[in-house]
Amino acid sequence: MTESGESGTRSPSLVTFGETMIRFSPSEGTRIETATELEFRSAGAESNVAIAAANLGTSTAWLSKLPDSPLGRKVVRDVRQNGVEPNVAWSDDGRQGAYYLEHGPEPRGIDVIYDRTDAAVTTATVDDLDIDAVRNADVFFTSGITPALSSTLAETTQSLLQTARDAGVTTAFDCNYRSKLWSPSAAREAYESLFESVDLLFVPERDAIDVLEIDGDAAAIATHLRETYGCSTVVVTRGERGALAVDASGTVEQATFDAETVDPIGTGDAFVGGFLAKRSEDGSTAESLRYGAATAALKRTMTGDHAVVTRSEVDALIDRDSGGISR
């Protein structure tokens, strides 16, 4: 059984697919092993992207599989409250994935402990999901986290991307490598099997170098991936050095916007969500990069994985600081 929005509403423009977990975190500076209280939120790359885009006015849906439990229902409630249509297959088997996040000042930094083994989503097949939502979308998005979770999800990810491609839907994919989930060689093999079904590819520069083993600067990386796999646009993110994209018209660079960092988790997802929101309005690559960078900067100022931003905030930031766009 799946849960979705009300019948008769228009099909979401952006559809994403992946796992959303429960995030537990002690207050900043407190160790998990000594904590007496934990903050309780939901978080997942694909739902984070959908939430960022939804807050910018894009009609969005998130597909997944969850346990029919209070924790699974909390995830759905959180996603829906952030303006995204949850389209969920409920399961009596499997559990709700979680992760524990410890914020520490330098030199400790951030530590993440995953607790997601046997999560219900790891058994999600195409038959579990609302394929019509994928076929009727303008953009379908997933990330490299999803195929890392199980062999079943690797097959489902491949099938969904190809289904979207066959229906004329723009496919978007963020490599989003996680070393705690798989090795660079396993990730590289999986990514390369998916890239030919991807129109819009996001890849962190470090992943391109360390996982995909591509030499050169960001422009060379983007050009190589675009020419090798036939992607229409490749976006290389470079952390504090901003982002670079290569499309049919050339190369575009976008610097970061200055922001005080309260919580960096979810910044990359906010960038992708902002980019896709603008792209769904037929924004140019340069305009979409600007929106992605501004959304990411605003996300850094708030606790939690979600970019709870408004269109006017993003526009105001862009108007105040062009962010150093160049082509």
Automatic annotation (TrEMBL):
Entry keyword Disulfide bond: no
Which Pfam family, an example, fits this chain?
PfkB
| InterPro entries registered for this protein in UniProt | Carb_kinase_PfkB-like, KDG_KDGal_kin_Halo, PfkB_dom, Ribo/fructo_kinase, Ribokinase-like
Q: Which residues form the Carbohydrate kinase PfkB domain?
A: 13-305
Keyword annotations for this protein?
Answer: Kinase, Transferase
Molecular function terms from GO: kinase activity
Q: Would I find Transferase among this entry's keywords?
A: yes
**Residue runs in coiled coils:** none
Matching PANTHER family: 2-DEHYDRO-3-DEOXYGLUCONOKINASE_2-DEHYDRO-3-DEOXYGALACTONOKINASE (PTHR43320:SF2), SUGAR KINASE (PTHR43320)
Report the family membership: Belongs to the carbohydrate kinase PfkB family.
NCBIfam families recorded:
KDG_KDGal_kin_Halo
Query: What is this protein called in UniProt?
Result: 2-dehydro-3-deoxygluconokinase
